[in-house]
Structure to design on (439 residues):
């Protein structure tokens, strides 16, 4: 069997974005669950809370995504219960990446694209990881998945800086979403936007 | 050709006893005491803390463990056996959440632990776990406090108050005399402490108490709080 290195277009239509700031990570995902030309649901939450300060956003092959995300979520929780301290974002991302690398070398790999966003309570720093189904992982200040990333990365390059505040980040993500509404052929109606910081994970509106 | 390793090491005696299981219960009776008391809206676990040797780090000797956010467990007997059982139980708690998207009920996880203990009384080449457990918690969206006990034979049952380990008979008799329905939080803690003090050398230093309430908050009482209860008693 040949590994399919070309991403099928169904999966690229989904959009995930993450932006790290001074002491938080802002994440957003579109809320439509669609196959080919039909939108089945427009209130889908494409994320799972791994623990109090870590969240994973997923896109890709439907079924694979939720199965994989929940599997990672349960294992991260198990670590927290076993050791009395929650897994750090870096450790969660490394664990996830290794699982995907193993899956790639199996009969049917998980086709998932992930963003892992977390706040490390031991160092008080926010982290964001871009991970794909080939087991590539990169720690980045901002990232996106899907066709939408082609429109947004340059906006993020232009306006992002390491000490960005939450209000500035909200404006920035709104800029990205507006760009998609203007230039992306798929009408992504709604987005679920979340913030992860010292106090945990919460949903916000912009 | 497999020979004697085929046979379960736990075999029936002529008069219908499983001696290995009974010897396991003996091992439990040698372990440090653990007490569980169910109140009106809370449930408390108390354990006797074995005196820590001078150079030992007391933080690494934990006898009350969390199995999940809403389930807590204490044990009496062979600590190493407990570690294995606790690990299995923790994995099962998460596995249950993964397959049915619901946290375990206290009865379910007790049944699971008891099932594991029973399996080891009927398998080849293994010995029973030398521990009895007290499992406490609240089911999801339920305000009823739960307390269950398992033992090496694999029996489990629900209790209003119970004790396991060293001098458990004395403690249980104390509980039978002093337990009443509808205990408040403070009364439950006080009863747990007083019952433990029956057998433990006096001093808050030798007791560890965990309190669980319906919002699944597990509080390990500090030494100072225990002193207050102690003096009040």
């Amino acid at each position: 069997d040949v590994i399919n290195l070309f991403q099928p277009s169904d999966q690229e239509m989904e959009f995930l974005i993450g932006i790290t700031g001074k002491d938080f990570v802002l994440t957003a995902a579109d809320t439509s669950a669609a196959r080919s030309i039909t939108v089945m649901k427009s209130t889908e939450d494409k994320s799972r809370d791994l623990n109090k300060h870590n969240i994973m956003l997923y896109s890709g092959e439907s079924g694979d995504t939720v199965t994989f995300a929940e599997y990672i979520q349960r294992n991260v929780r198990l670590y927290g219960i076993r050791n009395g301290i929650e897994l750090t974002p870096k450790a969660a991302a490394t664990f996830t990446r290794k699982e995907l690398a193993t899956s790639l070398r199996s009969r049917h790999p998980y086709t998932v694209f992930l963003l892992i966003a977390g706040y490390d309570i031991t160092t008080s720093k926010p982290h964001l990881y871009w991970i794909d189904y080939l087991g590539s992982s990169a720690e980045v200040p901002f990232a996106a998945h899907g066709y939408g990333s082609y429109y947004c990365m340059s906006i993020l390059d232009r306006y992002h800086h390491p000490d960005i505040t939450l209000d500035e980040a909200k404006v920035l993500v709104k800029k990205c979403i507006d760009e998609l509404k203007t230039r992306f052929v798929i009408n992504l109606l709604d987005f679920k936007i979340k913030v992860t910081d010292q106090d945990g994970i919460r949903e916000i509106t912009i | 050709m497999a020979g004697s390793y085929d046979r379960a090491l736990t075999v029936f005696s002529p008069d219908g006893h499983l001696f290995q299981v009974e010897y396991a219960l003996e091992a439990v009776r040698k372990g440090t005491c653990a007490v569980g008391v169910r109140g009106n809206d809370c449930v408390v676990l108390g354990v006797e803390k074995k005196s820590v040797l001078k150079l030992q780090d007391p933080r690494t000797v934990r006898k009350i463990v969390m199995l999940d956010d809403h389930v807590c467990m204490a044990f009496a007997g062979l600590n190493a056996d407990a570690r294995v059982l606790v690990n299995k139980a923790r994995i099962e708690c998460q596995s249950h959440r993964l397959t049915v998207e619901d946290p375990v009920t206290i009865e379910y996880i007790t049944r699971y632990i008891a099932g594991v203990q029973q399996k080891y009384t009927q398998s080849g080449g293994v010995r029973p776990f030398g521990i009895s457990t007290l499992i406490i918690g609240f089911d999801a969206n339920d305000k009823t406090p739960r307390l269950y006990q398992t033992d090496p034979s694999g029996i489990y049952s629900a209790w209003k108050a119970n004790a396991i380990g060293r001098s458990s008979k004395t403690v249980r008799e104390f509980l039978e005399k002093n337990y009443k329905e509808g205990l408040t939080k403070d009364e439950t803690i006080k009863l747990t402490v007083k019952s433990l003090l029956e057998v433990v050398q006096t001093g808050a230093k030798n007791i560890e108490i965990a309190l669980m309430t319906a919002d699944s908050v597990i509080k390990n009482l500090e030494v100072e709080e225990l002193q207050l209860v102690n003096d009040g008693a």
